[in-house]
# Entry
Amino acid sequence: MALPEKPSWVYVTYIVTSPEKIWTALTDPEWSVQYFFGRAMDSDWLPGSPWRMTLEDGRTDSQGSVLEADPPRLLAVSWSVVWMESMRELPPGKVVYRIDDLGGLCRLTVENYIDDTLGPEWVKGGADGWPKILSGLKSLLETGRPLPAFDSGMKV
Amino acid sequence: VAGIGAPELFYVIYIAATPEQVWRALTEPQFTRQYFRGRGFDTDWQAGSGWKLVKADGGVDEYGEILEALPPGSLRMTWRGVGTEEYCEVRITIEPTRDGQVKLSVWESHLEGATEEFKDGGRYTWPMVLSGLKNVVERGIS
# Structure
């Protein structure tokens, strides 16, 4: 098993804000609960440190380690989804966030690397979920209001 | 369109608005000028009609034909650029979600043998344009 060289899936969004604000929104639990289906981020975000994302009831949703961190430009983490029994044995993936400052406007690129041994349904899972999460992040940063809660299977 | 391939999903974005507001932001020049590199659509949005994107200086570098327009839910059009024989078919859907927002999706269908360079145009442009559309709509349009 191995992660592919090229991302399995990429999502790009442009946000009228600063790189620092995007970094905070990605890493601070007070922000993430507002757009990441209520999940709270938890880490010191230093290379080599563990990170996890918890559900409202305190259980861990996903976890991994910080592979690269260059605030406010780049964050790369390994990612294992653990809150569903069926996903605990799967090989971990990788998520890379890249933030480019275009001057009053930022480009946020999220790359998903999914293990070669996993089928296309896992790529589709990410492709369905991330646009919702990142559309909510953009709304929150631009208007101060999150998107209405999603009536989604990802809700617990 | 003859010789054109299956639709491929190019972009999805969620917007806190009604389908009617998103349709207006997508089609009316007063809004598109704010996010589509200063361009405004010139068309009557009827199937069979031509469309062009008009720049601030009156120039046109993108144009095509409306294949189907069903406001406020879907739009299908051919998309051509000045200086290339390549073109594609673009399909845009505007769907209300169960909790009162809108899912906007863009598909492109390409000719057999379309170059990656041509497809990269859409891959690069749609995220920028539709991020701008979302910003314009969510700041409020009346």
